[in-house]
Design goal:
Elements: E1 21-28, E2 33-37, E3 42-49, E4 52-56, E5 59-63, E6 67-71, E7 77-80, E8 86-93, H1 95-98, E9 106-109, H2 112-122, H3 133-146, E10 155-157, H4 162-173, H5 181-188, H6 192-203, H7 207-224, H8 229-235, H9 241-252, H10 256-261
Helix pairs in contact: 2-3, 5-6, 8-9
Length: 263
């Protein structure tokens, strides 16, 4: 679901892919959301600039610069652009070329080589010569996708239990809200023990871990949009920027400034 409620029909796509692998490029404007849809082909969604959020019924993936998200065939997903807009490129792979790229959505780091390959491929005709240099370039792109490194902390899973989902959605709407397990259980109408058990079973994270993950993905989104570290830290309920930076470094292996500079 869009965080601002604005939806935009997704750009037209051929009903049948003319080649096993193809690349398309288009602009996504600030506040735009590509409405929820699914398709029979896999998709590597990559924004060479800006940030995007890919949402499925299971959760959401925050995708900052220099990263992409792999979306397997048949997965219903929406794409929203919360900040300043993005220049969007997608690599599409037919089902028979998608099987070994993974059965689940994943945020992946885009190497400089893959970035340049995708840029070049986006300039090619859809019906390129599969037996020539353009076909070989597409083969290298798929090989490079197989080698991409996953960045798991940028995934925010959502519980499926209606009470817990309602609570999680409230916290996503107000990520600076900090609740103890007992406070969250009271709001959800469940015992603390039940909430802790169900939350862990349905998201793979404890309630505290899920709150920290929410803070992390919200921070990445806001920092990539140009908000100052201090403002983001205080808005998310941290007592000091240093405490926030320590959390960020533990989660993503670099300070906010260094992490986003990699984009």
């Amino acid at each position: 679901m869009s965080r601002n409620g604005h939806t935009t029909p997704r750009p037209p796509m051929p009903s049948v892919m003319p080649r096993p692998v193809m690349v398309r490029a288009f602009d996504l404007l600030p506040g735009m959301e590509v409405e929820a849809h699914s398709h029979d082909w896999g998709q590597l969604a990559y924004a060479s600039a800006g940030i995007m959020i890919v949402s499925t019924p299971e959760g959401s993936w925050t995708v900052p610069p220099a990263r992409a998200v792999w979306i397997p065939p048949g997965i219903e997903h929406a794409i929203s652009i919360p900040g300043t807009g993005a220049f969007f490129r997608s690599v599409y792979t037919r089902g028979d070329h998608s099987q070994d790229l993974g059965p689940k959505c994943r945020v992946l780091r885009v190497t400089s080589l893959l970035r340049e390959l995708i840029i070049r491929a986006s300039e090619m005709p859809l019906e390129y010569d599969e037996t020539g240099p353009e076909g070989r370039l597409m083969t290298v792109i798929v090989d490079q996708i197989r080698e991409m490194r996953e960045e798991e902390p940028l995934y925010l899973p959502m519980p499926q239990d209606r009470r817990l989902l309602r609570l999680a959605q409230q916290m996503v709407g107000d990520p600076g809200l900090r609740l103890t397990l007992e406070e969250a259980a009271s709001q959800a109408g469940a015992s603390a023990r039940t909430l802790a058990r169900r939350f862990s079973a349905e998201t793979g994270l404890t309630f505290g871990e899920w709150q920290r993950r929410l803070s992390l993905v919200t921070a990445v989104e806001r920092l990539a949009d140009g908000q100052p570290v201090t403002a983001v830290a205080l808005d998310l309920g941290y007592e000091s920027p240093s405490a926030f930076i320590a959390m960020f470094r533990r989660s993503l292996g670099a300070s906010p400034t260094a992490y986003l500079a990699k984009g």
